[in-house]
Write a structure and sequence with these properties.
By secondary structure, this protein is an alpha+beta fold. The protein contains 15 helices and 13 strands. The strands form four sheets. A five-stranded antiparallel sheet has the order 1-2-3-6-5, with helices on one face. Helix 3 (74-82) runs antiparallel to helix 12 (331-353). The longest helix is centred in the last third of the chain and has 23 residues, at 331-353. The chain is globular and about 55 Å long.
Length: 383
């Protein structure tokens, strides 16, 4: 990174803080900036002690390598031709505590910051201004009831907030509706709203909102299913705490290695401000390797690990219907069946290509069964 512009914090989580150069609205909307520094972010390992950017970098490189290696093989050709694209940000560099890069980076950070272990990754292009305006006017402060925000000052403040504008990414929650019917009430009678919007950074977009905005919810479900299948059976990791975000498509950077880091190839499109957009997969520091089983005990451990990772993550994936209910006839149940069917098909293709034994080939169906059967256990927080 060159020394002509300070870095701004565009994110902060348990693993650390994320910094990047400020983008103008033109760079948001057109993606025509020629400064390669604007295509990268720095993730500092200054979070909680039990979260490691070193581990994240290793898992990230493992996934990126497999995506590149398998891109020309049969199952990836199937996913590429029929699947919707999920981009993997390119891992660019691992910055050590004593790296000479800190001579450049430290002057761009606030004075209190010191060298630490950090990552340099490809930057996810944030949402365009027209999408931010839509989200602010239709989502912020409505309490899930679909009213427009009447406080123009609040709307203006949201759009003008410098830090929020630098990283407007959307989290698609296919497994949660913002308004839940009260027990015993009809589906048309809204209950108390669970969540409200408080920022334009990493906005959670719940299933009812995704439907109201006319976004391609089934396409999202199939893309997530392909990704989970790839992580489970190609990368052989549990996918714990990974995040899916909606943003702009990858910009043309003239970097062929980065441009190929994706699962699937078909773009997401929708009417209205979202238009053509992309899904990205991030945050790998909680992922753990899943050893393929050789006996019944190993198999049960794998199934438990996979189900626990599914239920403990934020509700990106569709959720299975409750046992002994007709939920499968409702939209949420049908969405789960779409996700499940796609996961099983993609998993089967991966394991067939890898010529795994009969026991391993039965695992995807058993993973889905374990997820379905542990719904009630998870609701009681005992998984």
């Amino acid at each position: 990174m060159s020394q002509h512009q300070d870095l701004v914090e565009i994110g902060h989580g348990r693993c650390g803080s994320v910094w990047a150069k400020r983008l103008s609205n033109d760079e948001y909307d057109n993606g025509n900036d020629n400064d390669n520094d604007n295509y990268t972010v720095i993730k500092r390992g200054d979070g909680t002690w039990h979260r490691s950017v070193t581990k994240e970098h290793e898992i990230h490189k493992h996934i990126a390598r497999l995506v590149g290696v398998t891109a020309s093989e049969s199952i990836m050709n199937l996913i590429t031709s029929t699947g919707y694209r999920v981009n993997i940000p390119a891992p660019i560099d691992f910055i050590t505590l004593n790296s000479a890069k800190w001579d450049v980076l430290l002057p761009l950070l606030p004075p209190k910051y010191k060298p630490c272990i950090a990552l340099e990754n490809e930057r996810i292009p944030p949402m365009r201004r027209r999408v931010r305006r839509l989200l602010a006017h239709t989502c912020y402060g409505t309490g899930g009831r679909g009213r427009l925000v009447q406080d123009e000052k609040l709307t203006a403040a949201l759009l003008d907030a410098e830090t929020n504008e630098q990283n407007c990414l959307v989290r698609p929650y296919l497994g949660r509706r913002r308004i839940q019917p009260k027990q015993g009430a009809s589906a048309t009678r809204p209950g108390r709203p669970q969540l409200v919007f408080v920022t334009l950074r990493n906005i959670p977009l719940h299933l009812d909102q995704i439907e109201e905005l006319g976004l391609p919810v089934e396409q999202y479900a199939m893309a997530m299913a392909d990704t989970m299948a790839f992580l489970h059976w190609e990368a052989e990791i549990d996918a714990a705490d990974v995040e899916f975000v909606l943003a702009q498509p990858r910009q043309d950077q003239g970097q062929s290695a980065a441009s190929s880091l994706s699962i699937g190839s078909k773009p997401f499109t929708s009417e209205g401000p979202f238009g053509s957009h992309a899904m990205w997969l991030v945050d790998f520091d909680c992922c753990e390797k899943m050893a393929m089983p050789t006996d019944d005990t190993d198999e049960m451990n794998l199934l438990t690990i996979a189900a626990r990772a599914f239920w403990r993550n934020d509700p990106y994936y569709p959720r299975p219907p409750a046992n002994h209910t007709p939920d499968s006839d409702l939209p949420d149940g049908k969405l789960w069946e779409t996700f499940k069917k796609r996961y099983l098909a993609t998993s089967g293709g991966i394991l067939e290509r890898k010529r795994k034994d009969k026991r391993v080939k039965t695992l995807p169906g058993k993973v889905m069964g374990m997820i379905e059967n542990t719904r009630e256990r998870w609701s009681r927080s005992v998984l």
